Amino acid sequence: VQLVESGGGLVHAGGSLRLPCAASGSTVSIDAMDWYRQAPGKQRELVATITSDGSIEYADSVKGRFTISRDNAKNTMYLQMNSLKLEDTAVYYCYADLPLEGIDYWGKGTLVTVSS
């Protein structure tokens, strides 16, 4: 499985961005897909999770502002980010879990920079 994030860039505080994550390869085996982020000098943290049956969870820091979604027909996951804050600045990574194969995959990340 290959994961490719896009959509990152520079945005003013209060603005919005949408990050797609395109999956290719053995996508039929993917169960949960997640968005993680890593800010400069900080550990990577889970932002949001969506399972193959549509169950969703968010980190408290993004609840009400970010929306995760998944288009299985297009093998693409999205992260809609609204009301962006300076502290949302980070590299955002896509993650896919293939539990039946006992393996997981990461994308290379896309940088989101929120300016004042």
Characterise this structure:
- The protein is mainly β and 116 residues long.
- The termini are far apart.
- The mean pLDDT is 96.
**Rg over alpha carbons:** 14 Å
Helix content: under 10%
Q: Any idea what the shape is?
A: globular
Estimate what percentage of residues fall within beta strands.
Answer: over 45%
Mean pLDDT rating: 96
Unreliable stretches covering 5 or more consecutive residues: none
Oligomerization status of the protein chains? single chain
The biggest sheet, with number of strands, parallel, antiparallel or mixed sense and barrel status, is:
7 strands, mixed
Précis, in short:
With 116 residues, this protein is mainly β. The protein has strands at residues 2-5, 9-12, 17-24, 33-38, 45-50, 56-58, 66-71, 76-81, 90-98, 103-106, 110-115. Strands 2, 4, 5, 6, 9, 10 and 11 form a seven-stranded mixed beta sheet that branches. Strands 1-3-8-7 form a four-stranded antiparallel beta sheet, with no helix packed on it.
List keywords for this structure.
single chain, 116 residues, mainly beta, globular
Set down the secondary structure blueprint:
Blueprint: E1 2-5, E2 9-12, E3 17-24, E4 33-38, E5 45-50, E6 56-58, E7 66-71, E8 76-81, E9 90-98, E10 103-106, E11 110-115
Parallel strand pairs: 2-11
Antiparallel strand pairs: 1-3, 3-8, 4-5, 4-9, 5-6, 7-8, 9-10, 9-11
